[in-house]
Amino acid sequence: MSWSFSIGESSISLGALAGALLTLILIWVVALALRRRLNRYAEAREHSRRASLYTVAKLIYYTMIVIAVFAALGVLGIPVSRFAVFAGALGVGLGFGLQAIFNNFVSGLILLFDRSLKVGDFVELESGIHGEVKDINIRATLIRTNDNIDILVPNSEFVSGRVTNWTHNEVSRRIKLPFGVAYGSDKEKVKAAALEAAAAVPYTLTLDGRRAPQVWLNGFGDSSLDFALVVWLNADATRRPSRVRSAYNWALHDALEEHGLEIPFPQRDLRLRSAFGHESDAAIRDLFNEPGAGATSSDRPGQKEHHPASPPPPGNPNEAP
Q1: Beta strands 150-154 and 225-233, pairing class
Q2: What is the CATH class of 11-107?
Q3: Strands (E), 199-313
Q4: Which of 225, 231, 229, 203 is nearest to 215 (CA)?
Q5: Is the fold of 116-165 the same as that of 173-258?
Q6: pLDDT band with cut points at 50, 70 and 90 for residue 295
Q7: Could you tell me the pLDDT band of residue 177, with boundaries at 50, 70 and 90?
Q8: Domain covering 173-258: architecture
Q9: Ranked by mean pLDDT, which of 94-103, 112-121, 191-200, 276-285 comes out on top?
Q10: Distances (CA, A) of 239 to 123, 144, 148, 230, 234
Q11: Rounded-to-integer distance, Cα 319 and Cα 312, Å
Q12: What's the rounded Cα separation, in Å, for the pair 321 and 318?
């Protein structure tokens, strides 16, 4: 007695179902093993070739999964044309509840073919998330931050949003580190101190040529002369933005202290003027009514000079008035 059931006009036996499952599992295992082998092979290659091999491995894996599904349907004896109605229903579903999933799937394929984003790239999103791309999946891309935190970002964010890819073509980048010194400081001494700081940090790309460190005078602040240390960074620094800025700020502070250059506090000039027209020390004495302010009562508006009454002239006390 053979066990079988029907789907529409197709009769499926238990043996056919087992064969279809075996075919599906076998092709899936082969696809998975092939992808892992290609990924291990890619790990030993340079960044550009590693990203290309990763893309090839992903495409082969997805293609073999599709082949596995059609092969399983063939073993079951179900013609693919029977799924035309199902495809129409799926299209309606994509227009409603599955729209976001389908959007991320298509965005993932765009990322794989467009190659604007590759495994190993260091990226920064509009949301402020930055890290290394570790994997590009069907629905989301895995980003690992410098704090070793894995973040899953929907693929559609990379296609529709603004993404900064710090390692897309060239890995060397330039940064500007602002700092201020007190007014009256020797500008040449400031320049020498800043260049010494750049030379002391191992992330500096070169000390000579077109990409050598520079010192710019950016403006005149309320309390300081505003400078900027402009440095080209090597490949190792591109993936460590916070550590790099900390290293240069540390070196700048040490160099400025060694050269006796002051980093000023915010300051304001206060000018006092009293209601009597005096300024500075005289105005302060007026404020506290101290003597020696240089102002007499006749100088003060709204006041008249007061003199004590004169004593009566001498006369006979017994004389009637």
Answers
A1: unpaired
A2: mainly alpha
A3: 214-220, 225-233
A4: 229
A5: no
A6: very low
A7: very high
A8: 2-Layer Sandwich (3.30)
A9: 191-200
A10: 9, 11, 13, 18, 10
A11: 14
A12: 9
- C-alpha atoms less than 13 angstroms from C-alpha of 9 in its C-beta half-sphere: 4
The one-letter amino acid at 205: L
Question: Are 215 and 188 in contact, with CB atoms under 8 Å apart?
Answer: no
pTM of the shown model? 0.57
Domain positions in the chain are 11-107, 116-165, 173-258, 268-292
CATH 1.10.520.10 fits 116-165, yes or no: no
The DSSP symbol for 162 reads -
Residue percentage of the chain with pLDDT more than 90? 26
Alpha-carbon gap, residue 220 to 218, rounded angstroms: 7
* Assigned token pair, 252: 């700048």
- In angstroms, the CA 245 to CA 103 distance is 38
HSE value, Cβ hemisphere, 13 Å, CA-based, for 99: 4
Determine the Cα–Cα distance for residues 114 and 108; give it in Å rounded to an integer. Answer: 10
Q: How many residues does the chain have?
A: 321
Lowest mean pLDDT among 162-166, 204-208, 297-301: 297-301
Tell me the mean pLDDT in the region 247-260. Answer: 95
